[in-house]
């Protein structure tokens, strides 16, 4: 099966890469050639390439004065905004590597990353810096405050975004292709996150090697949909900014409202969309609603790229029935942070959505190699199960401060002819079909993927074991009826100490990022063991309720109002629970923002009205949401008011997210 693109497929390449280039040198050429063209869109704000470059130059000089040099780290602790992009570019122009920190991470997680990386500086806002000021001082981390980083997208203006003194002259080039561009943390099995070191060359060759397939260029409009701490964002940011395209920054609240995101895709005429399968399936549901509403919201997509999760082809059938498979093209790309975002390419046809049952990941990017090996590191035969090893230009420098782990995961390439080449041992399992297609089969260790984030169960278990009053514990990944993986925690309390699910949930809110918190906490008298003394996972009971604990006494259908009963049914169905209390928090009961989107869509259909997504976050319990739904009007004239209210609330919600710890 030949998946190589034909020369006639798409006109004109937009990527202009050269042997000694860095991300900075390519961007500066684009900025010089397209100075007056729009580079960034954020609500009503439009920044040109010239303005973006000038702001980045200004920051770069400030950072160099603070001592930022080649391979030194500078943390970015900001909400999504043009200032975030300025921070990334400014750090790279100064010669440093950026360390992205999601501003919704709990303080404990932020400090773990800062203590490991020891950055020279942190680019943030005054409000966010205040929460870790003492620790920053102790670590000798300089604070660079970005003005405007927390304003809402619709209140900023081009005038207010203009620097006081324009810096059109680029700083002298400091970094080289082999120097670090960013340090991105992933979950670690030892209980501590591990930082992956990625170079400029790693990123540039990704765009260069995939150009023959995609031909990204100045006519493309991309969205920055994902967190800066998720490596999909690397592809989303540099795809447009290194090819002269336009980058639309998606506010977090909009990214969690499929209807509003769909409207953004239509309004901004987005041509390149990158999504995890979970998020795209939500978007497909919204499109059906849009058609039912007879709304005119045409899409301009030419390609949709999937990553972050295993893709079930059959779920795409409804999309292909409406759009066909050429406009847009749908492409599945398997990849890992340690091998620079993407490793393979697999276009999907409409017929395959009807016939393919497996997750096919396609062929390697031209400068990458895939090996399927057994436990002795020998190639497996056709149809046999093997572990994926990845070699080639995307293999990163390795983990920061983890020599032993580097020796285990980044091994010598005994199959290639390039001296010093390495293979990355992925821990992913696959097999090759008779027709040569590679089928992804999941993990061979305790690592799982939750909403696109790789999670080491060992890290979550280590946190659970540290909880006061917990004598024994374990964490497993369970698959619910929708096929979604969730973390389930089981614990044995120490004698004489009361430990409740609610207490554990509150502990994890302060300890772990939202995607790493268990969706349920089940108390046991003892952990079940096999005859060999190992944990008997099969003998663990199914979790019955979420982390908020048992259902309140008397909380049955007789004691609920009609609205409460309807809300409760939706919550329990989406969360896959036997029941939920009136005052149990949706997120404490296993909910994520993606699951809340599903509940949001169902509630809108049930109540036949528009419900602002912000209401769902503001009222996360059955009682509070039912009360809000009972008091809000439902007339057609009020729908516009509701939408306007939601628009105004986005900025406030995005700022509040940092303290609420909403899972992605």
Automatic annotation (TrEMBL):
Residues 558-633 form the Carrier domain. GO terms for cellular component: cytosol. Residues 152-171, 633-647 have a biased composition (Polar residues). GO terms for molecular function: phosphopantetheine binding. SMART domains: PKS_PP. Residues 150-171, 633-664 are annotated as: Disordered. Transmembrane segments: none annotated. Keywords: Phosphopantetheine, Phosphoprotein. InterPro entries: AA_adenyl_dom, ACP-like_sf, AMP-bd_C, AMP-bd_C_sf, AMP-binding, AMP-binding_CS, AMP-dep_synth/lig_dom, ANL_N_sf. Its cofactor is pantetheine 4'-phosphate. GO terms for biological process: amino acid activation for nonribosomal peptide biosynthetic process; secondary metabolite biosynthetic process. PANTHER family: NONRIBOSOMAL PEPTIDE SYNTHETASE, PLIPASTATIN SYNTHASE SUBUNIT B. NCBIfam families: AA-adenyl-dom. This is Amino acid adenylation domain-containing protein.
